[in-house]
Amino acid sequence: MTNEKFIQKLGFSQDDKVVILHIDDMGFSHAANVGAFECLDFGIASCGSVIVPAPWFLEAAAIARRNPQYDIGVHLTLTSEYNTYRWRALSSVDPNTGLLAEDRCLWKTTEEAISNIKAEAAEVEMRSQIELALQSGIDVTHIDTHMGTVMDPKFIQSYLTLSNDYRIPAFLPNISKEQLFLMGLGEYVDIYQKLLATLESSGFPLIDHMIIETGGVYPNKSQYYHELLKELKPGLSHLLFHPAKMSPELKSITPDSAEWRNQDYEAFTDASLRESVEKLDITIIGYREIRDIIRKQ
To answer: Quick one: which of 195, 226, 215, 228 has its CA closest to 256?
Structure first.
């Protein structure tokens, strides 16, 4: 089964432009929660995912419980990138798992996490994050990855196992050989190409196009997103962004990204962007629709 056929199962033709407008990093701060839920309420953003080990997860979960219409997944997390604003693993404090840096929090970088975390421990941690989200009342619609870590060959089989076990889609782009080299994954080309071909033939909902380079400050970020959406190609796309409402908290946690996170929030609550999106020949969906198809198959 090809990805085009999966799109047809969703009720679209293979020539349609279908996009998931996805909020990353829910739960990492109060500012992120405020920004994320206002964006979802505004109606351009379609879904998002929450960092379960992060300090403001409980607030995000409480809001989700009261509003089951929200389309929320788990942002599977093996890293904690900030210098003084840190979070720990849920599953273990045992140093033998490799989950924790010297300060007993998750590693700051993807490279450190991949080098140190044992594959078995990573799967236990990811499962713990999904379980806590479910126990907290979130109707988990999908899983994806914080900083891309869990899609490394060391962890990707566990990622797919969890997708199968919980019968939820896992964000996974159908990356070309050229893209893999550009991403510095050239040594894994054969592994990825074989895996993606197998998944595509099985009907796994691979993403045709991913748009992830949305950080950065722009003179008019609403117009920036309009241009990105205007250039969408036929197929299933995933565009991610990181809204957070400007506050002293946000500036303190992440002075380097506070401005562009606030710009994301402002863009996806901007009436002009909504009007332009309505005029484009695109269809916006979330992951709940994809999950529903998976669970019917």
So the answer is: 215
Predicted pLDDT at 3: 42
Nearest CA to 211 out of 199, 228, 194, 196 is that of 228
- End-to-end alpha carbon distance in the chain: 12
**What's the total number of domains in the chain?**
1
3-state secondary structure of 263: helix
Residues 109 and 61: their CA atoms lie apart, in Å, by 26
Supply the mean pLDDT for the chain.
94
| Structural domain for 72, as ranges | 3-296
Residue in the structure block whose two tokens are 């033939």: 201
Beta carbons within 10 angstroms of residue 36's beta carbon = 32
Give tens-digit pLDDT for 168-187: 999 999 888 887 777 667 78
- What is the rounded average pLDDT of the residues 285-292? 97
d(CA 192, CA 185): 9
Q: What pLDDT shows up at residue 187?
A: 80
DSSP states along 54-105: STTHHHHHHHHHH-TTS-EEEEE-SB---SSS----SS---GGGS-B-TTSS
Can you state the angle between helices 258-267 and 30-42, rounded to 10 degrees? 20
Structure tokens at 90: 């849920």
φ/ψ of residue 42, rounded to 5: -70, -35
Give the CATH number of the domain where residue 235 resides.
Answer: 3.20.20.370
What pLDDT was estimated at residue 72? 98
**Stated pTM of the model:** 0.95
Which H or E element spans position 115?
A: helix 110-116
Q: Can you say how many angstroms the Cα of residue 144 is from the centroid of all Cα atoms in its chain? A: 4
| Nearest-angstrom CA–CA distance, 36 and 175 | 28
